[in-house]
Amino acid sequence: VQLQASGGGLVQAGQSLRISCTLSGSNFRNYALGWFRQASGKEREYVAAIHWNGNSYYGESTKGRFTISRNNAKSTVFLQMDSLKPEDTAVYYCSADRVADRVYFSSVNFWKHWGQGTLVTVSS
């Protein structure tokens, strides 16, 4: 399984950005997908996850501003980020796992597969 994240960039505070991650090498429909982020000098933080059945879950810091979605036909998961703040600046990583127990979604150690990350920078 390979995950390829893309779409990061530089935006101003208050703007929106959508990043995406494509899975290859296996059947996308069988996987739960997640997004994490890691700011410089900080631990990796849970952002959101989506079950293979489409149910979505969010971390407290991004709930209400970020939306995770998936397109099974394109084997791609998206993260729509609205009302961005400078503190959202981080490298965003996508993750995947076939075990879709949402109890574990917020744990970094749960996810078996990781993408390379895409940098999102929000200027004030």
Can you offer a commentary on this structure?
With 124 residues, this protein is mainly beta. It contains no helices and eleven strands. The chain has strands at 2-6, 10-12, 17-24, 32-38, 45-50, 56-58, 66-71, 76-81, 90-97, 113-114, 118-123. Strands 2, 4, 5, 6, 9, 10 and 11 form a seven-stranded mixed sheet that branches. A four-stranded antiparallel sheet has the order 1-3-8-7, with no helix packed on it. Strand 4 (32-38) and strand 5 form a beta hairpin. It is globular. The termini are far apart.
Features:
single chain, 124 residues, mainly beta, 7-stranded mixed β-sheet, 4-stranded antiparallel β-sheet, 0% helix
Task: List segments where confidence is low: pLDDT < 50 over at least 5 consecutive residues.
Answer: none
Secondary-structure element string: EEEEEEEEEEE
Write down the Rg: 13 Å
Helix content: under 10%
Task: State the helix count.
Answer: 0
Distance between termini?
37 Å
Q: Total number of β-strand segments?
A: 11
Inertia-based shape: globular
Instruction: Give the strand content.
Output: over 45%
Largest sheet: 7 strands, mixed
The computed structural class is: mainly beta
The overall pLDDT average reads 96
Set out the fold topology.
Blueprint: E1 2-6, E2 10-12, E3 17-24, E4 32-38, E5 45-50, E6 56-58, E7 66-71, E8 76-81, E9 90-97, E10 113-114, E11 118-123
Parallel strand pairs: 2-11
Antiparallel strand pairs: 1-3, 3-8, 4-5, 4-9, 5-6, 7-8, 9-10, 9-11
